[in-house]
Amino acid sequence: MNSNIKIAVIGLGYVGLPLARLFATKYPVVGFDINANRIASLKAGTDTTFEIDDTVLQKVLLESPGNEKGLFCSSELEDLRSCNYYIVTVPTPVDKNNRPDLTPLYKSSETVAKVLKKGDIVIYESTVYPGVTEEECVPVLERISGLKFNVDFFAGYSPERINPGDKEHTVEKILKVTAGSTPEIGQKVNELYLSVITAGTHLAPSIKVAEAAKVIENSQRDINIAFVNELAKIFNLMNIDTHAVLEAAATKWNFLPFKPGLVGGHCIGVDPYYLAQKAQEMGYHPEIILAGRRLNDSMGDYVASQIVKLMIKKGISVNGASILMLGITFKENCPDVRNTKIVDVIAALTDYGIQVTIYDPLANPEEVYHEYKLETRNEVPNQKFDTVVLGVAHSEFLKMDLSQLQKPNGLLYDVKGVLGNNVDGRL
Q1: I need a surface site. Which of 59, 80, 87, 278 has the fewest CB within 10 A?
Q2: What is the DSSP string of 326-383?
Q3: Which letter, b or e, does each residue of 196-232 get, where b requires 16 or more Cβ atoms within 10 Å of its Cβ?
Q4: For 130-200, where are the E strands, in sequence order?
Q5: How many CB atoms are closer than 10 A to CB 350?
Q6: pLDDT tens-digit profile of 109-127?
Q7: Measured torsion, CA atoms of residues 123, 128, 129, 132, in degrees rounded to the nearest 10
Q8: Is 182 helix (H, G, I), strand (E, B) or coil?
Q9: Active site residues
C-alpha cells in the first residue's frame, strides 16, 4: 500500500470508531464527529458505546494529527484537509413514515466535499439502497468541491458489518465486501481494507452490487425472523411451545435457527425499508419484504397482549398493576437504544393502565428520555412488582434472582426465550 495514505473516518459511532481504531494500527487516521461530547470522551480514552475497550483505544490515540500511525479524534473540519481517503460511516435512519432519511449522508458528503482534493477517494459504509452512492452522494461532492467525479476524485463502497455488542465477531474478523467507481479504484479500495481485515475481502464488480448485497443481508434476516414470529403466534394459539418446536426442527442439517423476538435497532428493522422504497420507485411493490416488516413491527403490541392475558389468568388486576421492564436497549449487552422495540411493548402496557418501571444498567437515561420521553434507571429497584418482564437479555440480568423482584403471586415473562421453562410465559 502507498505509504502516503492518510484516512479520515466520518462518524465515530458503533461503526466508525472500531473501523478508525483498526486502521489506526497501520495508518494515520483522523476520526471526525460533529458531536463535541463524543470527541471529548474519546480524547479522554473512553468509548461510551462499549465497542472498543478503553485500554485498546488509548493505545492508538494521538494528541495531534500527523503522519505517524494512530488515531486523532476531532470535530474540526481543518483537521481533515490532509487526508486522501475519506470513509463515511454515518447512520441511515428512516423517518416516522418509514421512508429513508438520507440527511446524515448528505451532510457528511457536504463536509467531505469542503476538503476534497484531486486524487482523493471517498468510501461510503452506510447501508443504503442501490444507487445512493453514485446518484445521491457523488452529486453533492461534485457540486460543493467543484471537482469532476472519476476524473478528479473517486468513490468506493464497503458496507459495514458491525454487530454491536459482539466481542467475538469484531470488524477485522468479518469478511468485507468492497467496490470502487472504476476497476482501478475498486482494486485500491480492496487493497486498503485487505491490509487490515484478517478475514479477507470480496471485491464486487460495481458499487451498486455492493450496495444491494448489504441491504439484502438484513432484509433476509428480517423476513426469516418474521416467519418464526408468525409461527410463535400460531403455536401460542395451539398451546404448543414454539421454542421446543424450533429445537426439534433444528435437528435437520439445513434448518435455519432463527428465534422469535422484537426486531429493532438501526439495521434489520430499518434496512428493508430502503430496498422497498427503491423498488416502489421502480414501479414494483415488494410484497414479502413489506409483509415481514408489518409482522415484525406488530410484535410489541402482541407481546404486551400476551403479558396481560397471563396476568388475568393469574388473578392479577391489570389496571394499576406494576411491571418491571428489564432492559430498553435494542439488543443485549449494548447501550444502543436507537429504534428499540421495547418501547412498543411499554406503550401498549401503559395503554392498559399498567405502571411500568424500566431498569437497564447500560442505557443512558438522558438519551432514553430524549428519544422516547421515558424515565429509566440504572440501579435495581428496591421494591417488588406484580410482573417482571425480561425484555433484553443483558448478561447482568441472567445472573440475577428475578424471583426476588416479584410479589408472592408475581408473574415472570421472558421476551427473549433465554430463561428456560421456569417462567410463566415467553414469546
Answers
A1: 59
A2: E--SSSTT----TT-THHHHHHHHHHTT-EEEEE-SSS-HHHHHHHH----BSS--SS
A3: bbeeebebbebbbebbbbbbbbbbebbbbbbebbbbb
A4: 154-157, 176-180
A5: 14
A6: 999 999 999 999 999 999 9
A7: -50
A8: coil
A9: 267
Q: Cα separation of 282 and 417, whole Å?
A: 40
The three cell numbers locating residue 303: 407481546
Sorted by sequence, the CB contacts under 8 Å of residue 154 that are 6+ apart come out as 120, 121, 122, 180, 181, 182, 185
Burial zone of 418 (CB within 10 Å; 0-12 exposed, 13-18 middle, 19+ buried): middle
- Tell me the pLDDT of the chain averaged across its residues: 95
C-alpha–C-alpha distance, residues 237 and 303, integer Å: 14
Measure the CA–CA gap between 86 and 366, rounded to whole angstroms. 32
Of the candidates 218, 307, 233, the one whose C-alpha atom is nearest the C-alpha of residue 264 is 218
299-313 vs 342-351: helix crossing angle, rounded to 10: 50
- Quick one: pLDDT band at residue 412, thresholds 50, 70, 90? very high
Task: Quote the pLDDT of residue 156.
Answer: 98
Task: Show Cβ contacts of residue 89 under 8 Å, excluding neighbours closer than 6 positions.
Answer: 9, 10, 11, 12, 13, 15, 16, 19, 125, 126, 160
Q: How far apart are CA 168 and CA 165, in angstroms?
A: 9
Any bridge partners for residue 163, and if so which?
none
**All 3 cell numbers of residue 86?**
475519506
Q: In what order do the strands lie in the sheet with 28-32?
A: 70-74, 28-32, 7-10, 85-88, 121-124, 154-157, 176-180, 201-203
Query: Which position has the grid cell 447501550?
Result: 335
Q: What is the pTM of this model?
A: 0.93
Q: How far apart, in whole angstroms, are the C-alpha atoms of residue 179 and residue 211? A: 9
Q: Is 326 left (phi over 0), alpha (psi -120 to 50) or beta?
A: beta
Write the DSSP symbol of residue 148: P
Backbone angles phi, psi at 313, to 5 degrees: -60, -30
Element (H, E) at 427: none
**Cα 359 from Cα 396, distance rounded (Å):** 11
Long-range CB contacts (< 8 A, 24+ apart) of 422-427? Answer: 424/310, 424/314, 425/306, 425/307, 425/310, 426/243, 427/232, 427/242, 427/260, 427/261, 427/299, 427/303, 427/306
Joined grid coordinates for residue 39: 470527541
